[in-house]
Hints:
Number of strands of chain B: 7
Number of helices of chain B: 3
Structural class of chain B: alpha+beta
Shape of chain B: globular
Shape of chain A: elongated
CATH architecture of the largest domain in chain A: 2-Layer Sandwich
CATH superfamily of chain B: Electron Transport, Fmn-binding Protein, Chain A
Helix content of chain A: 25-40%
Number of helices of chain A: 12
Number of domains of chain A: 3
Order of helices and strands of chain B: HEEEEHEEHE
Oligomer: heterodimer
CATH superfamily of the largest domain in chain A: GAF domain
Radius of gyration of chain A: 26 Å
Helix content of chain B: 25-40%
CATH topology of chain B: Pnp Oxidase, Chain A
Radius of gyration of chain B: 15 Å
Largest interface: A-B, 60 and 53 residues
Strand content of chain A: 25-35%
Largest sheet of chain A: 7 strands, antiparallel
Strand order of the largest sheet of chain B: 2-1-5-6-7-4-3
Amino acid sequence: MSATLESLATCFQGLLPAQLFTCSADGTPNAAYLSHVEYVDPHHVALSYQFFNKSKRNVSENPRALVLVPDPDTGQGWRLRLRFSHSETEGPLFERMALRIEAIASYCGLKGIFKLRAADVYEVLGVEPATEERAACTVAERRGALPDPVFTVRALQHLAERIHRADSLEGLVDSILCGLEESFGFRQSMILVPAEEPGVLVTIATRGYAEDGAGAEVRIGEGIAGVVAEARKPIRISGLMRGMLYALAMHRHSTGERPRPRIALPGLPSPESQLGVPLLVRGELAGVLCLESETPYRFHEEDKKSIELLGSYLAIAIQNMQLQERSQDALPEAAALAPVAAPGPVVPSAQPVATACATRHEVAYYEADECILVDGEYLVRSLPAKILWRLLTIHEKTGRAEFTNRELRLDKSLNLPEWKDNLESRLILLRRRLEQKCPEIRLVPVCRGRFALALACPVALSTRP
Amino acid sequence: MIDAELKAFLEDAVGIHLGTRNAELEPNGARAVAAAVEDGGERLVVYLAAVAAERVLPDLEANGQAAVSFGRPVDERACQVKGVFEGARDAREDEKARVMAQWESFLDNLEQIGIGRLSYGAWVTWPCVAVRLKVSALFNQTPGPGTGGPLP
């Protein structure tokens, strides 16, 4: 039995530890665990070089090496006989390997500490099976045993049909996440979009987590989503736990410290596979789609191209919906409202729309931080906070309870940019934060571009410096 | 040479690989199933599946040079024992329970980090060959800047 290097792509996901054997010029053998083996081309692999060690020194003296790596699908171990070729510290190969390490490091709070120094490229002289590591099954049997469907044309069609039925941005992002579960079996997912604050992503939709997570923020370059946004390239990590343990072991070893806690995005307690997909339209970042799973090898090699295509398709769908909603907001109100159900009557009363709860909520707007706390608990900040504050104060002064996206866009106090203001995504975020944290205050869609502020309790407004 | 604390680490829940080389300095190696520290830490016995041992024994018999790596998946603690080959024999039936217990504890450790046993279902773990080494040096291999440094 023999194999081509191309057929071993699944071995290079880092799910099962690989082993590197080298030998010094004086004939002393060395055996060491490997962080990462990367497929380069049919005749080369690259090994991650993260800190100087005996293996590195050995191949500089004697370029021969042996890597033992198991196939996570079948269990078959493979022996790769190698000869060191060269090291790369820049370029596509280095960036690809560095990105994976950077994402893991960032996830652990170790960005800049746990990093790739070089991609060491080896020529593959031979590939042979390891006799002691026999296959337990064929690839087809292993994949057939997986409970969830993977990327198929049928699944993509289902997702596309679902997306086409969405009639709002909120409906669209929910359709995407719902479709990813129903058509592909990806149960935990989230979509983040660029926030008003430069260099920040904000979560607008999640699925499959105990906490909704809307409003959770991550800086560009931090965590899987942040690194995907920064690199504008998909990241697929299998065996995340192993990678994290490796990074944490290195950090403890070098500093004796525990790293700072990671950013509190919604997430599985023990994710094993993570996939981050940049949603790009003509090079512009519309958002990031993140999927995760407790299954160690959930996102397979053959899914890679489909995932990239899916990312482009979703980005276009999201941007189209944003443009559609925005262009309809710009129409004269009667024309914009004509094709859909008649709007509800403007509520002229100074009383709340509905007062089902007698408990009064204290809503405080902190001007310096541009954030809102309800009964002392953080609700939302930045543009969504300014929008809610504007709605509540107008309602308090005039009793008006219905608002349009168009008037928000024209409202100078909100200071929305003239182009690409992302108002709809901010309204989605605000609506979801209210559902989570203060369901007595709701933003209820009335028709396209129009919504009502529905208060099921009295509110007391106050501003703080 | 190998103290009690290190002995406990080497004999429980670790992945083990034995590295060798031939006369042309080509590296060679195989996965091992278990290990035992003997003679007050002066010697190490490495248990290899017989199908793996036949691949590395010619190297050991020719030049005697060996390197054995140990890694614990759950915390990535790792070290390497360098040694000189003293001999090999078939593992005895009365050693099987201890060897298999070590192997099982390693698989348990992998399960703790989410790697199930399905992949390892057909790996060969018995019969084994016991390879005896005289320990010559110990090195730290836990990931980090000190990797490769000698262990006290």
